[in-house]
Amino acid sequence: ATANECGKSNPVRSKSKHYIDSPNNYIIGGRKAIPGEFPWQVAVKNFKTKYTFNFCGGVIWNSRYILTAAHCLLDCVDGKAKKPTRVQVCVGDYNLKSHDGENCANAVYWWTHEKYDVCSRKIKNDIGILKLKYPLYLPQLTDNGYGSTNIPCHPKHKPYHGMATISGWGRDNPNTKSSPDVLKALTVPIWTNRNCKRIWNVDESQICVGGDGVQSSCQGDSGGPLVYYDEKGRATVIGLTSYGPVGCLDKGVPTVFTRISYYLDWIYSITNSTKP
């Protein structure tokens, strides 16, 4: 798909295949992604100083803009929001400790939603946009597996049922600070917002998934994609990792994602994209 063909996947490469769920597949403790399996996935480094940074995920919106979580771009310091000194985005990455065709660029500007409050305990509007210094090369089919946008086309807050897939380089053991070198994936059940409201104070701008106490996203996965595959196997990125239970694993407590379709008008206004 080109950057303007919203919601369509790139042709599946010969070395790639759709993720088939297994009870043993998860980010914490589990399943490695296939190189090129998630072409919309990016790595986001938020530099606090020249050498220290926080790590997050993100999603390709088009060749110039990246979506991520707002809390990946702001810190609460003494009750006030503080921006990072520099933000770098890497696309086409798989193994973070080796060069495998990734393309990295600094962000020249970034926005967080105007109603997001990094110092509030009520986490809402957790979405941000990065503008890259140079446009990404997004051909229809790429050897390194990146280039697909796969974003909902219209602001329809339709309920998603069944399973969805999370990917990221986040912590794979909630009891340590270690993170995997390679991209990992997890397929999880989608909750209804009605059920999720019994646990979290969510609204239609959010999606809840997971909560089995065994598998979960964790620190480092923030801002990364939640992907829904339709009956034809077409992938759509429907959410961005926002927050979950302390320690990542808590049975009966789901992870909360920002629903991308809810913010399409805001995204279009920032990126000057043409609505399909």
UniProtKB/TrEMBL annotation:
* Residue span, Peptidase S1 domain: 27-272
| InterPro entries listed in its UniProt record | Peptidase_S1_PA, Peptidase_S1_PA_chymotrypsin, Peptidase_S1A, Trypsin_dom, TRYPSIN_HIS, TRYPSIN_SER
Keywords attached to this Swiss-Prot or TrEMBL record, sorted alphabetically, are: Disulfide bond, Hydrolase, Protease, Serine protease
A GO BP entry is: proteolysis
**Hydrolase as a keyword?**
yes
Query: Which one Pfam family would you cite for this protein?
Result: Trypsin
> Which GO MF terms does the UniProt record name?
serine-type endopeptidase activity
- Name the source's superkingdom: Eukaryota
| Name this polypeptide is given | Plasminogen activator sPA-like protein
Q: What is the lineage of its organism?
A: Eukaryota, Metazoa, Ecdysozoa, Arthropoda, Chelicerata
